[in-house]
Write a structure and sequence with these properties.
The structure is a single chain. The chain is built from 16 helices and 14 strands. By secondary structure, it is an alpha+beta fold. It folds into 2 domains: 172 residues, Aminopeptidase (3-Layer(aba) Sandwich); 178 residues, Gcn5-related N-acetyltransferase (GNAT) (Aminopeptidase, 3-Layer(aba) Sandwich), CATH 3.40.630. A hairpin with a 2-residue loop joins strand 4 and strand 5. Helix 6 runs parallel beside helix 7.
Length: 410
Amino acid sequence: MSAAGKASIPVPPAVAPLASAVCRDLALHPVNPGIWFGIGTVDDVGALARLWTAFEPEADATPFTAWSWLGNWVAMLPRSGQLYLGVVQEQGAITALGLLWSSSCWRRVIRLNRLQLHECGVPEIDSLCIECNGLLARRGARVEATAALLQGLLRHPGVPRWDELALPGFDAAGDVRAHAARLRLTVDERVVPSYFVDLAALRDAGKTYLEALCSKTRRKIKGAMREYEQRYGNIKCELSRDVAEAEAFMAELMVLHQENWVARGQPGVFANPRFVDFHRRLIRDLHERGGVRLLRVRAGGQTIGLLYLLMRDGIVSFYQSGYQFGLEVRHEIPGLVAIAAALECLREQGCASFEFLAGRQQYKSELGLGCRERSWLVLQRPRLALRVERAVRQWRRRLPERWRRPFAAG
């Protein structure tokens, strides 16, 4: 090869030292001019924790992409798969990090090799329901880093074989779709509304939360609040002050949650011991740093409901709840009353935004003052078996409902 030809081959930069301590086999591969993608099997979880927490202050982390969440998730992973660290570097510095779970499964008669970002395909673990997901990317670099991830997963020689890439709970789905189209990947997408309340805007406008609701919803909640107060006493909100109080509030929330769901014939998420253990660890890890709060709403000494909240940078994510039904009030809507009281409390506390997280439940559309979309994406490589399977699924969707059932078992 000529000297000019040799000079045209990009020389990979050194892997960031903290990243090389995580994966002995991590190697970088060029994806764009000046941008490199690396992937390797995670050998040292302690080193991974040091890398992640060192990079977090420079990144746009959410409660679901912070190490407090993902570290507890890593501790739950099964043995039937392999955890990989994906790294995007630019000019020798880390731009983004992501954790990819590699596993295989059968879908009817097709054996699939899957990669999943921050999920693992085990229902008992994925019941954590990650949202606000994506790469842990340097501020302002998320779009470019996501493009580098997709290109790297197609080009890097060290990437495990994959047919599908699952990207659950993404907000920037439009960018992913555009990148996938350029790379000739097929995209399956499930879009779910995610309602929110801009608490900072309410404060700036000098409005309470109830004043911002439509008149019908406001009258319904105010009437129910009057009934609770006449029967039990003034409504008040109590935010957990320390870990012990948070654990006590959580225990009360779990009892109310389970009673409500079991009465509907459903098991309730807290019937899953792995789910319970995860959140007990999360509360112990985060409460003193302000990352978790339990909020109890009472009328006098009577509990109306409890909310489990994830907190980061002034944004409150409403993750779980438990409500007291069966009280002596005519208009029994403890959920609406508890959430409305909590929102006013958080507005007064100076929080910036309240996120209901993804879901089509009526109470979210009733109580939310704004809405965005959140997507669960599956990107597929151009495999014949997957094209056939997708065609069959599309055909089934066009069938009348009574004809679909015999095919569902297949």
